[in-house]
């Protein structure tokens, strides 16, 4: 039981539905249904029937979403394995060929030999200056800016005129 709670706490920080989260969710919804049934028996209020239907719908929806997520992950894994097999590579062969150098496209680059420069292979995924310059910022006009955001030449002219008048 203690390991379940430890797994539950650690699975909070794990992306995706983990078995301990699914078990805890189902147990919580089952306990809620029992409480709603007991309250219905004690009070004979129709509100607890409605709440029970809402609880059941949410419970079903969460379990449906988890099964869809798992089936999508399974399909993605199968598609990846089939594409590896079509290339004539097994999953083990692909691991041996990967050099671990990431490229801009998100894949891996296989180093071909000593002709590759060390600096060139390390800076593949970095931004180039032309990428940075391509994104230009729009200047804020004086009508769009509030009174303290920017100063203009006309404001400096007013200051210099006030200084000349004061002399």
Brief summary:
This protein is mostly helical and 167 residues long. Helices cover 65% and strands 2% of the residues.
Give your account of this protein's structure.
The chain is mainly α and 167 residues long. The protein has a domain at 29-85. Helices cover 65% and strands 2% of the residues. The chain has seven helices and two strands, in the order ααααββααα. Strand 1 (101-102) and strand 2 form a beta hairpin. Helix 2 (19-43) runs antiparallel to helix 3 (46-86). The chain is flat and about 90 Å long. This is SMK killer toxin resistance protein. The chain crosses the membrane at residues 20-41, 48-66. One of its GO terms (cellular component) is endoplasmic reticulum membrane. Residues 143-153 have a biased composition (Polar residues).
């Amino acid at each position: 039981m203690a390991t379940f709670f430890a797994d539950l706490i650690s699975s909070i920080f794990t992306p995706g539905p983990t078995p301990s989260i699914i078990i805890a969710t189902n147990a919580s919804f089952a306990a809620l249904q029992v409480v709603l049934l007991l309250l219905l028996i004690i009070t004979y209020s129709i509100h607890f029937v409605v709440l029970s239907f809402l609880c059941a719908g949410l419970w079903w929806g969460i379990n449906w979403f988890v099964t869809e997520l798992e089936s999508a992950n399974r399909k993605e894994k199968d598609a990846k394995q089939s594409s590896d097999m079509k290339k004539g590579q097994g999953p083990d062969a692909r691991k041996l060929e990967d050099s671990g150098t990431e490229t801009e496209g998100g894949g891996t680059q296989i180093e071909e030999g000593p002709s590759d420069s060390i600096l060139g292979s390390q800076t593949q995924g970095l931004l180039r200056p032309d990428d940075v310059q391509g994104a230009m910022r729009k200047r804020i006009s004086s009508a769009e800016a509030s009174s303290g955001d920017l100063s203009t030449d006309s404001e400096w002219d007013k200051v210099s005129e006030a200084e000349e008048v004061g002399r």
